[in-house]
Design a protein that fits this description.
This protein is 18% helix and 28% strand. The strands form two sheets. Strands 6-5-4-3-2-1-14 form a seven-stranded mixed beta sheet, with no helix packed on it. It has 271 residues and is of the alpha/beta class. It has one domain: Metallo-beta-lactamase, Chain A, CATH 3.60.15.10. It starts with a strand and ends with a strand. It binds zinc ion (2 copies). The site of one zinc ion has 5 residues, from loops.
Length: 271
Amino acid sequence: MIKIHFLGVRGSTPCCDSRYSQYGGHTSCVLVEANDQLYIFDAGSGIINASAIGLNHPDKLTNLFFSHVHLDHMMGLPFYFPFWKPDHHINIHAGSLARYGGIESFLKRILCEPLFPVPFTAFPAQIVCSDFVAGHEHIFGAVSISTFELNHPNGAVAYRLNFNGKSVCYVTDHEHGDNANRDGLIEFIRGTDVFIYDSSYDDNNYANYKGWGHSTWQEALRLGNDAQVVKTAIFHHDPHNTDEKMVDVEAAVLAFSEKGFVTRQGMVLTI
Ligand SMILES: [Zn+2]
Ligand SMILES: [Zn+2]
C-alpha cells in the first residue's frame, strides 16, 4: 500500500486569501508513505503540514527529494519541525544541482544570516545530503525510486516511487514541446497508478508563458493516456487560478478524461 498526501499543490507562490480556500495555496509538497517509511517530494510551503507526520514517525527518519530548488519548492524547508529535533534523521536528495556545487553547499549558502537566523549547519537533526545524476534508480529496501531529467530552467528531476507492484510518479516542473524528451517521459511513467504532473497552464494560455518551464493540464491528460496510467493528477496550479477558475478547470479535466483529477491541498490517496 502507498499513501499519498498532497500537502501543497500550488505553483510559483503561496496564495493565502479566501479565494484559494477550496484548492489550497501552499506550494509544492507531496508526502508518500510506503513500506512504513516517509518520502517527501519537495519542500514548498506545504511541508509545514508534513511536520506532525514526520515528528510522530517511529523511525524518526525522513527521506526528502527535491525536484529542484526554485523558491516555491524549498521555501518551507526550515519549517519542517523534525529539522529541529536532534534524534531525527533527514536524508536530502537532489539531482539538479551538480552544476551549482551540489545540494549541501547550496543549502549552506542560502540558509544563513541574514536571510535566516539559524544557519543550515546548526540545525539539530542528523542531516545527510546527497546528489545524484538523473536517470538512475535508488533502492530503499523494498521501495525503489527512479529518476528522469525534466525540461525546466536550471534543471529539474522527476521521480517514480515503486513499492509492492504499485507506483506514483511526481513530475514537476516541466515544459513540454521541442526541448522535452516526450517519448522518454512516457516510458518513465508508463502504467503508473498515480501520475502527478505540472499543469500550471492550459493549451489556450500556454503561448503567453512559452519558455517559463511549465506545462498544461491537457498535456497531462494526453501523456497519461499515451502512457496508459491509471490516474493523472493535475498539480502545480497557477496562482492566477482562484477557486472560481479551478472549478472550471476541474469540470474541463473531467470532461476531457475520466482518468484525470485535480489535486487539492489536504487530499490523501491510498493505492
Ligand atoms: Zn514550481
Ligand atoms: Zn521551477
